[in-house]
From TrEMBL:
Keywords: Hydrolase, Protease. One of its GO terms (molecular function) is peptidase activity. Residues 277-369 form the PDZ domain. Its EC number is 3.4.21.-. This is S1C family serine protease. InterPro entries: Chloro_Bact_Ser_Proteases (IPR051201), PDZ (IPR001478), PDZ_sf (IPR036034), Peptidase_S1_PA (IPR009003), Peptidase_S1C (IPR001940). It comes from the Bacteria. One of its GO terms (biological process) is proteolysis.
Length: 388
């Protein structure tokens, strides 16, 4: 057994040596244990971009809103409404007092919607239902300026209207590339819901090409879960770059408020209507001149036709129309229109309406079990339009 003093000596000497070494490190090389510092180049980059180290990972759509929001306007409409006549108005005793009140048989009714400035010439797109039956239309910009608007034209079948204002240096929204949108893309809705002031909400594109909703004659909506409320009608649906994707038009709601199902008219549709209204004063749509019914399994069974058949059964033909001139007959089953499946009546109607008068329409059909091919020339559909 070793003596106790020898054992303590073997334990204490290494400990003291370690303490001396540690003190030397702290004294001579403090940089070895200092926390990591931000690279100067990185700090300069963050300072120039207006960011700090703490918020450099922040995701924001402020730039998109700043680019688009100035071109989104509020639309006020005024309508003269006559009061119902009452026998008391014929009483001279009361009438002498009523006549002193101006417009005692009339009152002004105001409504509120939104719109989007789409051209430097002062053209503003909005919904037809926003300005319907208005006697006076006022456009209010985000910068506080206001101007009376002239109604250039309105298309009730797609729920769009075109206004024109006269103001200098007006902001104009940028249009997104045609058909560049996909389900899942981030979008923002800008408008004036409930009259509270310009508001931005965010969501995604939930679906594209929604139709058969019963909202309008021609339906090809972008569906979004960005909150759209009363007053947003006619406002902008933009992408993450601040470009116009669509014109907000409607919501599906059981409560009257937003429930995450909103609909916008695609920007390319709106621009086409705008161009037609400016150039022709009316919307130009292709027309085939037929009435059809979708070939459902139940109907095919009733007609003793194969249940797997898909197409549109011709149920009516307009005299001297493009379909009659192309040789179509009642009972024909259209299977293809310009090399696209013809199983959906609403989609087929939109497809034909997108054509110009004089365009060729390639038709494939079944007649008495025989496959036939013919070609028609699109006519012009006479739309129910509201003109100024």
């Amino acid at each position: 057994m070793q003596p106790l003093s020898a054992t303590l000596k073997r334990l204490v000497v290494p400990v003291l040596t370690g303490l001396v070494t540690a003190l030397a490190i702290l004294q001579w090389a403090p940089g070895w244990i200092q926390p990591a510092r931000l690279n100067p180049a990185t700090a300069i980059t963050l300072q120039q971009s207006g960011q700090s180290a703490s918020d450099s990972g922040k995701v924001s759509y402020a730039a998109a809103v700043d680019a688009a929001a100035p071109a989104v306007v509020n639309i006020y409409t005024r309508q003269t409404v006559k009061r119902k006549h009452h026998p008391i108005f014929d009483d001279p005793q009361f009438n002498q007092f009523l006549q002193k009140a101006p417009d005692h048989q009339q009152r002004m009714k105001s409504s509120l919607g939104s719109g989007v400035i789409v051209a430097a010439e002062g053209y503003v797109l909005t919904n037809h239902h926003v300005i319907r039956s208005a006697d006076e239309i006022v456009v209010a910009l985000r910068d506080g300026r206001e101007a009376n608007a002239m109604l250039v034209g309105s298309d009730s079948e797609v729920d769009l209207a075109l206004l024109k204002i006269e103001l200098p240096d007006i902001p104009v929204i940028t249009l997104a590339s045609e058909r560049s949108q996909s389900v899942g893309d981030v979008v923002l809705a800008i408008g004036n819901p409930f009259g509270v002031g310009q508001t931005v909400t965010m969501g995604i594109i939930s679906a594209i090409g929604r139709n058969q909703l019963g909202l309008n004659t021609y339906e090809n909506y972008i569906q979004t879960d960005a909150a759209i409320n009363p007053g947003n009608s006619g406002g902008a649906l933009i992408n993450a770059y601040g470009e116009l994707v669509g014109i907000n038009a409607a919501i599906y709601s059981q409560s009257g408020g937003s429930e995450g199902i909103g609909f916008a008219i695609p920007a390319e549709t709106a621009v086409r209507v705008l161009t037609d209204l400016i150039t022709h004063g009316t919307t130009i749509r292709g027309w085939l001149g037929i009435e059809v019914q979708e070939a459902t399994p139940a109907l095919l069974h009733q007609l003793q036709l194969p249940d797997a058949l898909r197409g549109l059964i011709v149920t009516g033909i307009y005299p001297a129309g493009p379909a009659e001139q192309a040789g179509l007959a009642i009972g024909d089953i259209l299977t293809m229109i310009n090399d696209q499946d013809a199983a959906n009546a609403r989609r087929a109607m939109n497809q034909i309406a997108a054509l110009r008068p004089g365009d060729s329409i390639d038709l494939r059909l079944l007649r008495g079990g025989e496959s036939l091919h013919t070609r028609a020339i699109a006519g012009q559909r006479q739309s129910q339009l509201k003109q100024p």
